[in-house]
Amino acid sequence: MLGGYTGKYLDINLETGTIDKKNLDENMTKQFIGGGGFIARILWEELSSDTDPLGPENLLILMTGPMTGTLAPTGNSWYVGFRSPTTGIYGEGRGGGYWGPELKYAGYDYVILRGKSPKPVYLWINNEEVTLKDAEHLWGKDFFDTTHQLEADHPGAKVLGIGPAGENLVKCASIMSDLYRSAGRGGAGAVMGSKNLKAVAVYGSQDIKIADPEGFKEILAEANKLIYEHPATATLLPDYGTASLVNGMNAFGALPTRNFQSGVFEGAENISGEKMAETILTKTRSCFACNIRCTRYTMISEGEYAGVESEGPEYETVDAFGARCGVDNMEAIAMANMNANRLGMDTISAGTLISFAMELHEKGILTKEECNDLDLNFGNHKAMNTLLQDIAYRKGLGDTLAEGVREAANRIGKGAEKYAMHVKGLELTATEPRAAQDSGLGHAIANRGGDHLRPWSPAFTLFGFGNEEMGLTGTADPIIPGDKARVVDAMEKTAVFTDLNGMCKFTVLCNTLAPSHLAKLYSTITGLPFATDDLVKSVDRTLTLQRALNLYKFGMKPEQDTLPERLLKEPAPNGPAKGKVVELAPMLKEYYEHKGWDEAGYPKAERYDELGLGFVKDQM
Amino acid sequence: MAKKVLAVKEKCVGCRMCELACSMNLENVFNPKRSRVQVERGMQALDLPHICYQCDDAPCAETCPVDAITIDASTGVWHLDQETCIGCEQCIDACPYGAIFMEPGKAYVLKCEVCEGVYCKEICPTNALELQEA
Amino acid sequence: MMTITVKVMGPLIKIVGKSTITVSLPSEATLRMLLDHLFECYGDELKNEVLNEDRTDLAPYYKLLVDGRNSKLMAYLDTKLQEGQLVHVMPPIAGG
């Protein structure tokens, strides 16, 4: 087996309770590396257009990468793969923390969970000993309490699981790990809940071997030096966290505000990373094997929100519960963040849902009675926190919102869809695309729907972090559509590679590590010769297979590569992008060409051959 | 004073890179459970590295029924003889710093003996580990 | 004379003591003149943070925005300012 892998995985049928230990297919390893690559390959093999995302036939795959659990910078990531109940298409999420490495120390690269358990269970993985255990006593408990209980029962174990939102099949339910880390997007928590699986506790004490320890130490020293010398990874992220973006995004008019009505929030400074550092920040921490240290530990000891204690809130959460809901109260945001963690909910989608409901209420589409008797106006942080709970427990309006913003808009009718901010059913993230056109393109083409992380191209177009090896230099103009296809393509080639390996994107987003560093880390860990060209190809292979899954298995049409009407037709009312809409059509056309897809957005047959994906053609 | 690696808990952020560095340096693998330094992570942002303090009067050595823990008089560093150790864990209970660990699947314990290179200290991103010479 | 609003972020807030400053400059003053003015008011500490080591340019990844637009898309440090404009001095913030 290649270095970095354990060489084994678990295949578990929750219906029958069968637990199989299987050997990793080395061929798949070389082609798809791990993370989202493995997930796409397995889903392609096993799922069909008939798969009901919340039915027993859907898979829930808990995945790592070859760098997970190693000393590669930020080698901590775990992933979850599934057909998304929110979007109906490819579902993938990433979490940091400690759980992923622990799974590998237990001796497994990934776990496939299939079927539905007849009663609530949790999975206990203690090295070779793998058992399904009764979870009646945990069902209904929030994720913090669940974790504390399982940590007490299994000392030293790392815990991943769901909260009440996942149990209640809420479409923005996340899978949480290590108390505060979240794989949030696309409803993985609901899939886990549909399987009656509450948690996976892991303890591992086995070795991870790598191919070339001396070569690894050399490239590691070089990589660490770059991380410690780069102002973003050495100073700004540790000092101010991801929420250091709040003031910056606001300056560019790119901070989504009041359900994307604007990109400028007058209360931004009150919810900024700088403000957090002055007020509720207790300590800077880190995930496993991470020397960037962006994690915030926050506590509130007095006032209306006394008792709040959690990691975060992160930038996305600050925008979701802050600017997007018109809330400039940092403590209220921290409360919503903590509760989302406890309930097991994606803060990004939850904030989108609440701000959507706030706008419907202000526009008269929803009455106060229909809003669970809440004064659901922008800025009402108490109502926001109440509605968050109501979504998790499907109470009143919360039950409608729990279906995701696309379906909620369908059910509400009366023109509500105009205010539903999503792509392909997945709620949008915290970049205003009218002020960063590339982000509009990125959201429109992302394989899991409204997703900013493939890649987060504003790192270049707004903040100027280039990528010389990928030809990104100079200064981009974020408010024009020109040249954005090339930018998104170049950035995703580096960023998505981290998603195959188990690293965090923050190693590459600020142009700290280059593709060649990643290739060398991969090569010294696995023992395979690997150059930047191979890296580019591996990313293209994965992204193309994920798109093929969407097109040929999950019923997606390329016409869905679009954005909400508001962003395409309503000119930005203020800020640097005033008067601009997202000019998506020319960017999409350029991107399709760039990727070797036809004009309609289907990858060409020869593209599949070039990438070693010939098997896709049988399904075209 | 003994030669030792000192942990400054106020600086620790809980990344546990020291654990990976230790197991890589001494065992050529990544396995935090085989590390001679282990970080405890708890509520209220507790990140506490446990590493041998090389005590003058070492309770671990005193309690060891087979005298497997002996001092190097020139450095003050306590060495553990894995051949002699019977894995009874009495030293683990005796250590006031929680700095002795069982080797997984083996009948002996692990403790920091201030190795060549002190890779843990080199790799720590926040200088939470300091080398104190004898 | 004209009035320019300057906003700073990250570590600059501590150096300046606040996040927003109002500055009076001669008409047609450039960004370079604005920077010099700020360095006069806030001293070497600000200069060390904002400029590169040999003082020839901004420090790596530092940006100056005029009304939310990167000044590199204009005349960079020679950009002429106008009455009432908003200038951001932005350190290398990141996240996502």
| Helical content class of chain B | 10-25%
Strand order of the largest sheet of chain B: 1-8
**Uncertain parts of chain A:** none
Strand content of chain B: 15-25%
**Largest sheet of chain A, if any?**
6 strands, mixed
Helix content of chain A: 25-40%
What coarse outline of chain A follows from CA principal-axis ratios?
globular
Going across the biggest sheet of chain A, name each strand in turn: 2-1-6-3-4-5
Number of helices of chain A: 24
* C-alpha end-to-end distance of chain A: 33 Å
Low-confidence stretches of chain B: none
Overall pLDDT score of chain A:
97
Describe this protein with a few key phrases.
heterotrimer; B: about 130 residues; alpha+beta; two-stranded antiparallel sheet; 4 helices; 8 strands; about 20% helix; C: about 100 residues; globular
Quick description:
With 620 residues, chain A is an alpha+beta fold.
Structure notes:
The complex is a heterotrimer of chains A (620), B (134) and C (96). Helix content of chain A is 38%, strand content 13%. With 620 residues, chain A is of the alpha+beta class. In chain A, strand 16 and strand 17 (426-427) form a beta hairpin. By secondary structure, chain B is of the alpha+beta class. Chain B is 19% helix and 22% strand. Chain C is of the alpha+beta class and 96 residues long. Chain C has helices at residues 11-16, 31-50; strands at 2-8, 20-25, 63-66, 69-70, 86-90. Chain C is globular and about 35 Å long. Chains in contact: A-B, A-C. The interface between A and C is large, with 46 and 25 residues.
Secondary structure topology:
The complex is a heterotrimer of chains A (620), B (134) and C (96).
Chain A: E1 8-13, E2 18-23, H1 26-32, H2 35-46, E3 60-63, E4 78-83, E5 90-95, H3 99-105, E6 110-114, E7 121-126, E8 129-134, H4 143-153, E9 158-161, H5 164-167, E10 175-177, E11 181-183, H6 188-194, E12 197-203, H7 213-229, H8 231-240, H9 245-251, H10 273-278, E13 281-285, E14 295-299, E15 309-311, H11 315-321, H12 330-343, H13 347-362, H14 381-392, H15 397-401, H16 405-412, E16 422-423, E17 426-427, H17 437-445, H18 458-461, H19 484-501, H20 515-526, H21 532-553, H22 565-569, H23 584-595, H24 605-610
Helix pairs in contact in A: 1-2, 2-21, 7-20, 11-13, 12-14, 17-19, 19-21, 19-23
Chain B: E1 4-7, H1 17-27, E2 38-42, E3 46-50, H2 59-63, E4 69-72, E5 77-80, H3 90-94, E6 101-102, E7 109-110, H4 119-123, E8 129-132
Antiparallel strand pairs in B: 1-8, 2-3, 4-5, 6-7
Chain C: E1 2-8, H1 11-16, E2 20-25, H2 31-50, E3 63-66, E4 69-70, E5 86-90
Parallel strand pairs in C: 1-5
Antiparallel strand pairs in C: 1-2, 3-4, 3-5
